[in-house]
């Protein structure tokens, strides 16, 4: 949506008034939450609009802006009419023929393009690195990229089963590698498959609508997977952007499963960021999206997300009610309708999420009981989760007045971190070390603090 002949949007600038770009962006995000939308608006986005670089917003932003300024149209806000940017008018202006098999609507390619572009400067930098001759080797001296390659559209811009399968396989590989190794080493490399998937959707076409739908869902899941890698590696704003655009993609495609997944991740991120009211709302919205999907396990996870938000708000009664629902739904067992991405969600994850709730509610003893059950996981396919659960146990033991046992659990996490790179886990250990510091005279505590000291949590970047 950029233009080399951008015309400043003076109408939009006037509507901002005396507010700074950052203040106005915060107002946009608040307005989005009022109507159940998710947009990752920041000062940079406001600047792009006012400079004329964004000539027409995607549909999510359009709904938010029209909510903020009732009675005004897009053109009143200084934007071009949508048909002048894309669609028939744009093709007529260039003399280009209409594509024989268009996507569902004009919004789709715009949303998918922005789902990649809003990933932040770190994502753009990663793409430039992946273009180099050593991209597939990823610094390991050659060999195929373990994330796999997504082919470009065929002659005439067409795509089919092989391209769709490559996108779906990239999602599976990212999840597998993340389960075993954590996110820090994967995030930059995942930008390549993400960009390729969106290129297929943005420029390609298929003869079957079912193929388009599969690619649409696959690209949305890939956006969520890359968003999760950003989340776990400490790039929270990048994660927020990916999750928000995945949600917009789900709504455009009418995909309730993808929408529920996007809300689940959004709730998780909001809880981690201390935005507990948002965590509750997102989890509840996810439950509404998932209510007809016949997956009790999905509803159980979303109830746990809601419980985490209530715990952060200090509402014990609401938290316990949500935990009760989560256990009841979990007890109904697995079903064929459970999404593939939920392979991680077993009893250890349920116990871990409940431990987090009790920790937030200031009951470390109850948190320890649940964290112990989570830390009993013994599955080599989920090394990252085992490190995470033991990090939670270490933190809860430290708060519960068991410093030497906490240090022992923290040492077990350090043993696993040779294979696992997760900024989130590193930050949990840093907090545990802070709580344990007054007990540094104890031998086990001293040993843990000495081992952990060289670890400096990664704060984002390229």
Automatic annotation (TrEMBL):
Can you name the source organism?
Streptomyces roseolilacinus
State the protein's name: C1 regulatory protein
Matching SUPFAM superfamilies: TPR-like
Entry-linked InterPro entries: TPR-like_helical_dom_sf
């Amino acid at each position: 949506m950029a233009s080399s002949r951008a015309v400043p949007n003076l109408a939009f600038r006037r509507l901002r008034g005396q507010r700074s770009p950052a203040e106005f962006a915060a107002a946009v995000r608040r307005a989005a939450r009022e109507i159940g939308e998710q947009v990752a608006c920041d000062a940079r986005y406001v600047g792009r609009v006012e400079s004329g670089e964004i000539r027409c917003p995607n549909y999510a932003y359009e709904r938010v802006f029209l909510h903020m300024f009732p009675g005004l149209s897009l053109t009143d806000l200084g934007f071009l009419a949508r048909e002048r940017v894309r669609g028939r008018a744009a093709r007529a202006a260039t003399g280009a023929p209409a594509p024989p098999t268009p996507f569902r609507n004009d919004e789709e390619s715009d949303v998918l393009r922005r789902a990649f572009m809003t990933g932040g400067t770190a994502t753009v930098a990663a793409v430039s690195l992946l273009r180099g001759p050593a991209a597939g080797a990823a610094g390991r001296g050659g060999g195929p990229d373990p994330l796999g390659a997504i082919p470009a559209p065929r002659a005439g811009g067409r795509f089919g089963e092989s391209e769709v399968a490559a996108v779906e396989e990239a999602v599976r590989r990212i999840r597998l590698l993340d389960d075993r190794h954590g996110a820090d080493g994967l995030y930059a490399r995942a930008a390549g498959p993400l960009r390729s998937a969106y290129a297929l959707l943005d420029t390609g076409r298929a003869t079957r609508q079912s193929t388009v739908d599969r690619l649409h869902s696959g690209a949305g899941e890939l956006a969520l997977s890359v968003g999760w890698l950003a989340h776990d590696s400490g790039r929270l704003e990048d994660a927020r952007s990916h999750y928000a655009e995945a949600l917009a993609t789900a709504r455009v495609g009418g995909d309730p499963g993808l929408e529920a997944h996007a809300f689940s991740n959004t709730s998780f991120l909001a809880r981690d960021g201390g935005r507990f009211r948002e965590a509750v709302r997102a989890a509840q919205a996810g439950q509404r999206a998932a209510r007809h999907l016949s997956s009790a396990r999905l509803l159980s996870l979303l109830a746990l997300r809601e419980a985490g938000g209530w715990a952060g708000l200090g509402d014990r009664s609401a938290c316990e009610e949500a935990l009760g629902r989560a256990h009841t739904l979990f007890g109904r067992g697995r079903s064929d309708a459970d999404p593939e991405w939920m392979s991680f969600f077993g009893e250890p994850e349920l116990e871990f999420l409940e431990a987090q709730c009790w920790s937030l509610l200031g009951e470390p003893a109850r948190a320890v009981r649940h964290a112990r059950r989570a830390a009993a996981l013994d599955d080599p396919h989920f090394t990252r989760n085992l490190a995470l659960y033991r990090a939670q146990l270490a933190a809860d033991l430290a708060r519960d007045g068991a410093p030497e046992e906490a240090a022992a659990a923290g040492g077990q996490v350090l043993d696993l971190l040779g294979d696992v790179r997760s900024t989130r886990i590193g930050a949990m250990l840093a907090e545990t070390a802070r709580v344990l510091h007054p007990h540094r005279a104890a031998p086990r505590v001293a040993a843990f603090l000495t081992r952990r000291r060289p670890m400096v949590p990664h704060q984002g970047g390229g």
